[in-house]
Amino acid sequence: MQTITVLGASGFVGSAVTRALARRPIRLRAVARRRFTPPPGRAEITVVAADLTDRAALADAVAGSDAVVYLLLADGGWRAAEGAERVNVGVLRDLVELVGGDGEPPLVVFAGSTTQVGVPPREPLDGSEPDHPATPYDVQKLAAEEVLKKATAEGVVRGISLRLPTIFGENTVEGGNHDRGVVSAMARRALEGQALTVWGDGTVRRDLLHVEDVAAAFTAALDHPDSLVGGHWLLGAGRGDQLGEVFRLVAREMAAQTGEDPVEVTCVEPPAHAPETDLRSITIDSTSFRAITGWRPEISLSDGVRRTVAALTSSVQGRVRT
């Protein structure tokens, strides 16, 4: 029976990947900083609480793994500064040093970011562009990806990097972390009756991908590794949704949930500290990954926003009742 270890299993993406893998007849090791309730399923699940910056704890966590899904993310998310390098790069460096040995190298599927390219040189991005990361987070993600590619070239691991776009959606595992991205942030504001503010004229586009579709991409990579190993692959819905329209959709869905009038969506000038990457549109062409794996996004923007808003409203109402 295959043993798959998920590092960062209680995170927003990690929770969804853990839930998807729990449906399979495998040994599933779900590793997080704190214990959480695993999802039901066919898998033999072991939950491991560990600080993976401790090499000994990391070694124990991944021992005997046929595949490792690497979803660690330092506190502070995409705006993480230099202090996050230990988590965003150092743990992966430790991992490839620890898992080398006799036998077939383990598969390592790593969560990168489409923003590693820096200021988008064109639309859509397809993964062939040169990388010029513009933020500390993206520099770290690229550095980690390069560690993985080097270890793959040396035959230590079989590495695959899936570069993720802007992800949104609801939490899928009890005790897992909730989405802290832009869609959920706007939904929380709308629930509080606050106006939603969008930078510029609202026409900047983001490739928004629901977290369950992201989880499906990771399972697809695990199922089709041979043609993916050694490369980086961009994931996206390919829509390029205008943020102003997304925010208005959030406002309407929240109004439908609460019975209140939709909150206002207003355009504001971007703050002076906003990086240029925040002001540029990004859409993704994931044709290469789709052709190899057969993966396709299944959840539409409207359905994903509806689910996100409904889950947030239910969560808040549940806390009020208790």
Automatic annotation (TrEMBL):
Protein origin, superkingdom: Bacteria
Cellular component terms (Gene Ontology): cytoplasm
Start and end residues of each NAD-dependent epimerase/dehydratase domain: 4-235
GO molecular function: aldehyde dehydrogenase (NAD+) activity
Pfam families: Epimerase (PF01370)
InterPro entries: Epimerase_deHydtase, NAD(P)-bd_dom_sf, NAD(P)-dependent_oxidoreduct
This protein's name: NAD-dependent epimerase/dehydratase
